[in-house]
TrEMBL record, chains A, B:
Domain Acyl-CoA oxidase/dehydrogenase middle: 162-269
Acyl-CoA dehydrogenase/oxidase N-terminal domain residues: 40-157
Domain (Acetyl-CoA dehydrogenase-like C-terminal) ranges: 467-588
UniProt signal peptide: none
Organism: Paremcibacter congregatus
Function (record text): Involved in the assimilation of dimethylsulphoniopropionate (DMSP), an important compound in the fixation of carbon in marine phytoplankton, by mediating the conversion of 3-(methylthio)propanoyl-CoA (MMPA-CoA) to 3-(methylthio)acryloyl-CoA (MTA-CoA).
Cofactor: FAD
Domain of life (superkingdom): Bacteria
Protein name: 3-methylmercaptopropionyl-CoA dehydrogenase
Domain Acyl-CoA dehydrogenase/oxidase C-terminal: 285-450
Record bears the keyword Oxidoreductase: yes
Keyword field: FAD, Flavoprotein, Oxidoreductase
Family: Belongs to the acyl-CoA dehydrogenase family.
Class of the enzyme per the UniProt entry, highest EC level: oxidoreductase
Amino acid sequence: MADYIAPTREMKFVLKDVIDIAEVTALGRFQDASDDIIDAVLEEAGKFCREVLSPLNAVGDKQGAQLTADGVVASPGFKEAYQAYADNGWTSVCGDPAYGGQGLPLTLGSAVYEFVDAANMAFSLQPMLTTGAIESILAHGTAEQKAIYLEKMISGQWGGSMNLTEPGAGTDVGALKTKAEPAGDGTYHITGQKIFITWGDHDLTENIVHLVLARTPGSPEGTKGISLFIVPKYLVNEDGSLGGRNDAKCISLEHKLGIHGSPTCVMAFGEESDCIGYMIGAEHKGMAAMFTMMNNARLNVGIQGVGSSERALQMATTFAADRIQGKAIGATVPGPHAIIEHADVRRMLMTIKSTTEAARALTMLNAKALDLAEHHPDEDVRQANKGLADLLTPLSKAYGSDIGVENASLAVQVHGGMGFVEETGIAQVYRDTRINPIYEGTNGVQAMDLVGRKLPMQGGRFWRALLKDIGEFTTTLPDTDEFTGLKVNMQQAVAASEECAEWIVVQQGVNMRNALAGSSPFLRLLSVTVGGYLLAKGALAARTRLDEGDEEQDFLQAKIITARFYAEQIVPTTLGLKSSIMAGDELFFGIPSEQLTP
Amino acid sequence: MADYIAPTREMKFVLKDVIDIAEVTALGRFQDASDDIIDAVLEEAGKFCREVLSPLNAVGDKQGAQLTADGVVASPGFKEAYQAYADNGWTSVCGDPAYGGQGLPLTLGSAVYEFVDAANMAFSLQPMLTTGAIESILAHGTAEQKAIYLEKMISGQWGGSMNLTEPGAGTDVGALKTKAEPAGDGTYHITGQKIFITWGDHDLTENIVHLVLARTPGSPEGTKGISLFIVPKYLVNEDGSLGGRNDAKCISLEHKLGIHGSPTCVMAFGEESDCIGYMIGAEHKGMAAMFTMMNNARLNVGIQGVGSSERALQMATTFAADRIQGKAIGATVPGPHAIIEHADVRRMLMTIKSTTEAARALTMLNAKALDLAEHHPDEDVRQANKGLADLLTPLSKAYGSDIGVENASLAVQVHGGMGFVEETGIAQVYRDTRINPIYEGTNGVQAMDLVGRKLPMQGGRFWRALLKDIGEFTTTLPDTDEFTGLKVNMQQAVAASEECAEWIVVQQGVNMRNALAGSSPFLRLLSVTVGGYLLAKGALAARTRLDEGDEEQDFLQAKIITARFYAEQIVPTTLGLKSSIMAGDELFFGIPSEQLTP
């Protein structure tokens, strides 16, 4: 597999020229995150990902995690890589300084996470899920729970896992059956099985803090009767040292399409009636705690899609530049040529590149909104950014993960026959990234969340504000040859987004299913509109820097071309999407279920 | 994995009500192919595929073909299944009756092939490649060669393989280096290596007839210096019995993303300087012979995409009907509901269904055009159909294979987390079908062929005729509530196709690369237009039959809904495609290759 090179220059551009991370680093809390620190973190993370994590990507695919009598053993090299990862401080980038974290902005941590994921997606899931657990404990734990767990989890000494799904309770979490019965001493006995538990067991850390959703006796049905519990793999003594083994075990691993290096566990709690859990947060408030874990996880899954997509771009470009085959029509030097000179190959590469950059900017804007929503001193700014983050999260998750899959497939295509054999490594990207549209809420669930929950929030205040910003920005684009086409296409996209959002709002009052029928294309429409806007912002910034005589001529010129390509080739898909969305649900249910197949 | 049920009723509808196979069966050559025979062939094929081939699909995936000291051994059960396949006459459906074939139309054989492929894609490649070899020998072989090989190949006693690709010669076949030196006795010594040879060796048949492209001494460079050779695995004695082992061997198998049951061989010819080949056709005319093999192979690969897509539809529908999860908004009965009641899941299923049916109709129209082009008594009709088949072949290959991949991915998505674990089998479809857009000429090559060769043929006569037919048909659609939306969207699509084709024709005279930059979206645009037209034809036929009181109410009603869904949700993508196509190549090459990645 080709080396992965972290796109640090690109990421700095997104953070500084596109989403303006300075608004975040201006906050007192982040005063240490100077430009130099940002650059240094990105460079060091890129180096670590390239040198340590990337070489293990194919290793983990070939020899996945294994279930042994002593529990799950990670793929060769993963334990050592994890130790280095923790030692170098990568588990603690955004961690709360009160518990030993570095307290850097989530925006920067998210940028680092893209590199980690692109280098080794299977590996990256362990820190991602630990982060989810940390956030839950931080938000809902007692002072004592925080004292026991957080420092060790932030330092990477202990890991975390999230235990939600059961065989009959996937998307419908409320159907779960795992039980938590009071033991009389304030603790609970947990019994039940969870499936699809990512990194549910492993040998990377000395302990694993499982967060488990379960029902206390007599709880109401559905999501209202769910509580959250801390179930450590090893019990913890009062002095913080490890006690006995808790009755929480991985009993089998899934045989999966991809991410073989990430153990997907069936977890059994209380098989020997001796699983001890500690309630976290209030009884019956487990869903709220779960959403704390899940929201950032959704952004992270979108970022995973971007990471896969970046890796696909690098592999496809390298292959296309090396592969000599035939003569390219329109080439200025005599052939044979590398296939990168063929127009259709270039179409594929530019499609991957431009959608990757659009989705990256989207996820980083989302992360920035989360930082401001949490830490800005002004309540109005916090609220506005909370609303923006709520709106963007389903977009990040679904658009990021969808383009990850689409671009991996395009990159396989660029490889031709070599894309279908496993040795080149692009097939692994194609397999690995396919999980992203599924987990942490399928993309259909994201679309439902967008249309059903996020659009109506506060009377539609947040989407109106976002589209107003985009519309106003678009109007300010110069009427030059360079920007006119982009401007026209973006204006169409903004208009289509507004029209469709208004249509959906009306439908919500009449026939919710009519609105939901178009939810997936609407999510795509809005994502492409936001993506096009952010690329256009970057292009305008690049033009300004070029006009000011900036030295990075080629790089900045490429930003403009990429934004224009996206506007010209991707943004027009919004025309068809608008038509699809506003067609409603009539034909969706026109055929009885049993007539859908022979 | 869910059972595969051959869509026989659907296929009969396509053949009789959509593409009018009666025009083919009216020909004297096909007088035996009565409606009853067609029905019986489809039913029997469907039964065989379901009972024999489909159960081996997962078997072949888990235990792929193996290379042993005695050559390649197929997956467990494949040899017995193949024997039954041949015994039941499935290898000889379209075979020339002069050599023991049943002489049925290619259109019918193509319908059968879809079932075989959907049931077991890896298996289906063996008969497909044998068919290619048969066609080449039939078209270019001497009477003696035909006498030696054809009967045994058509009966399935011997297999065939096609040996084109070499490490440096994939799409650019002209770069191949395999040598053929005259032995002095009319035969040739072949030396060289071929890669990616599908079913290049196996134990299903007692002999394998390799067709090998090679260069004779002093041949001109490029495609003009290539000749075609018959290289049997076992030499053939004068009485037709098998002689000694020829020096043509599989020396390794590829480790692939999918179709593990289909051995993809590296073939070594003349490693011991003792590989005997027999020239077929004239010296230096190997490319013509290759295109004979390849044209039908391209249609078959498109059909493979349709087959994968049908299987994906069946698996996703079955899963969605069984999987109870949450409450579906807009459902008329209280929940919990099967996920098939959710609008977004229904969108995915209807998308798979409608695109599968569109692509199926396209491939069958293509097959029909090939039948008429070969066998119609009227020269003008033959010419017109030859032109139509030439035009449709890249569409069948690329659209069929692309929707195969897209729909397999959608079907994985419908399965949620269960789609990512291998046990449900949908992941296998996703992996297997990914080869279709690549082999037999990548889809980029198909798009180039469409724009560069097929559009300009005879001054654009064929595409103009096709779009004229579609336009006229569209005009005749009734202005009823049922058909109006479909009619409007189809008229837009026809107009977009015409406008883009005209634009491309102009560009071809000015800047060919400008035309080629939009070749892939143009191929998609034209495919969707033709697909929408064929579904509309079916819908109109269904409406007529319903009005006449036909008993198959639900089935016919479903045809109309499916055509309308396609017109409403898929056809509008042509709006964006038109915009992409006419944007030209300017931005494709705006970034120097080395700036595409960090």
